[in-house]
């Protein structure tokens, strides 16, 4: 056997650089690069190894460990899970900063390779700087926090262990069912230790997407359920995009007359103006999609994990004799709520279902109802997003301005707070991937870093990040990274002076205005934060827009710019789009001294009576 003597870190990065994929006939590295913040736990071993392969496996310096892992996750999502990135940190706080990002990737089923440094395997210098000591377990380190938020976790304590660990890592990162974050905790002494590695380990390997076919009995059961349906609907999740099945979905819906609604992850599978695209479903859904969901006797859930925002906390679907077909690569998701499982790739499954249905179509009256409902919703939605002279516009009015100033090919990026609800209902996605929302973990601080990752994955498209002042304050450092890398973003900061979304939820559940808006939080001095000055200090072109008219002008200027722009606009924290939507189960206290809470509790009990579990 031919071997080459390398340190474990050198073997690791040489292996990563040799992994390839083929997209549109072009062979590309499957790892687009490594985000790195070096410290004493990774600079000498992995840092030196990355330097040696910097031309074939580029290293990108970030400013915050959590944010760089968010950027890597967003890159993978924008790349439809076909390509991905790694992120490395030192031990201690650098590593645990990435735990939240690992959870984001885990919840959203996205590939991310995390390479945190770890303590000395030989334990000679223990305890080293930043080492956490457990009094009852000498094997623990802070990296054990990654175990519940990783699809695969391994701690490398000997150099040869990296050989099977990397094989397992690639299997998980590229598997459509088990895809998620992989953590390889790299003991810092092991990184620098040498071993005679087989040369074959570093041969080029092409990874193609796996498209599993369904079990014949499951397919037959799904077809029988569809053929018996009189009021079928499709819920499209992120799995449709990851399968690159949007054209197949459109053809399926058109041929069989079935309306399509979308989860946050699945939004943009169909263009907003497709006649059967009903838009968002669930808590933040359109009236078009939700009225159909309420009446449906069959729900074909494609590539979705059916979280509570999609199902209205399982109170949305009320049709007589309703059935659920779960088309998913992951059996765990396919059988939720007694769904008939159809475990397979989304594109393959839709193609086989269409062939099996032959000329079957949904009743014309049902398809007509869907189209009429969509037209009604579009009329209503336009009233929320239209131009205004208000000094403090709503989130919906800002969304309308961003939409009017943009193009069908644009990508809007967002994550947590009130904006996801408004965008899910109101954003008109013109092309697949044009709506990039992290709403699985709903992680504040994802937005700007996510925009960086999206733009790195798809540099030809304009990327607009919409972020509230709360999320901006939590994580904004990757503005500097975007400027440093020459990555152009347009970032719109909506300043409602607090956590407006949760303040509205607090009010809806009978609570007093408390600790959400800055004015309602304990303070000696009410903050007056200059977001434009801050963004400019990070290297962005920053302006403050006074009203919707100035916002649209600033957006046009940002579009013509060659560097990252930040546009700040003050907004009203109270209004939201009350049309559409569905109930969301947020528990209200049974006992309170406040009459508002008692009234909210009565409403909550009434709504919960519609919730169905396991039927």
From TrEMBL:
Pfam families, A to Z: TPP_enzyme_C (PF02775), TPP_enzyme_M (PF00205), TPP_enzyme_N (PF02776)
Keywords, sorted A to Z: Hydrolase, Thiamine pyrophosphate
Organism, as annotated: Labrys wisconsinensis
Highest rank taxon of the organism: Bacteria
Similarity comment: Belongs to the TPP enzyme family.
Stretches assigned to the Thiamine pyrophosphate enzyme N-terminal TPP-binding domain: 44-130
Gene3D superfamilies, per database record: 3.40.50.970, TPP-binding domain
Thiamine pyrophosphate enzyme TPP-binding domain segment(s): 417-568
Entries under SUPFAM superfamilies matching the protein: DHS-like NAD/FAD-binding domain (SSF52467), Thiamin diphosphate-binding fold (THDP-binding) (SSF52518)
Stated name of the protein: 3D-(3,5/4)-trihydroxycyclohexane-1,2-dione acylhydrolase (Decyclizing)
Signal sequence interval, chain numbering: none
A GO MF label: 3D-(3,5/4)-trihydroxycyclohexane-1,2-dione hydrolase activity
